[in-house]
Request: fold
Amino acid sequence: MSFELVEPGSLKEVFGLLDPGDSAVRPLAGGTALMLLLKSGFFRPKRLVSLRAAGARLSAIRVEADGRLRIGAMTRLATLERAPEIRGGFPVIAQTLRTLSNVRVRNVATLGGHLAHADPHTDLPPVLVALGASLIVAGPEGERTVPVEGFATGLYETVLKGNEIIVEIVVPPLGGKRAAYAKCTTRSADDWPALGVAVTVDADNAKVKDARIVLGAAVERPTRLVAAEAVLRGGLDAARLVEAGRAAADEARVIGDTRGSAAYKKQLVEVFVTRALRAAVGP
Reply:
């Protein structure tokens, strides 16, 4: 199998090389998922457009004056895991990365590629949805902002056009919010989780101003469980956290697969939503 591999030096050049009418022309970020597709013969490219040299903006991590975090899409997951801006201001991201796949993958995979691949089993999308993050998407017609919550539209499908790429990920200040991520995984060679749950809680003493509960892996795309979120508006006592777990299990439309039946995953939702909430709000 032969194909063209190009490495443009700017975003303008990238957009000139992509072809929205040809699915065999793709951008290349870290390539961890794409290489598996190539080896399996599932994807046969005509041209791969590497983003590695397309500009410093794509690999920068910075916190703005208002506390917003900006992460370049070509930032490697291992770099993100170790970055002081992440560990200090957004520890839930660093904690999630510690058990995301393995060190070899994290040393190569990029955040933009992680999101653009839209595999429902990936860990960071539900975390970023819970944090209220958005994406700066760029193409030949300019840039637009897309909430992470609406970015994936289904299995391996996103709102990206064929000549668009993710440029930056923007995360609003965490402020007083408390966040946690919990997942059920065997930690085996086949490390995809059966279920992942990300939560954020913004509370002033016992009064809950906002809460987000986001389910991943057991659904086709990261999904907020709004009925379970509503339960928490009444308070954060131990009984209410358990009630939120039950409400989440009732609400979730999970998919059975080799990692567990739908009935089994319903039970996991109840347990792991309650567990993640306890981790976020404390004893």
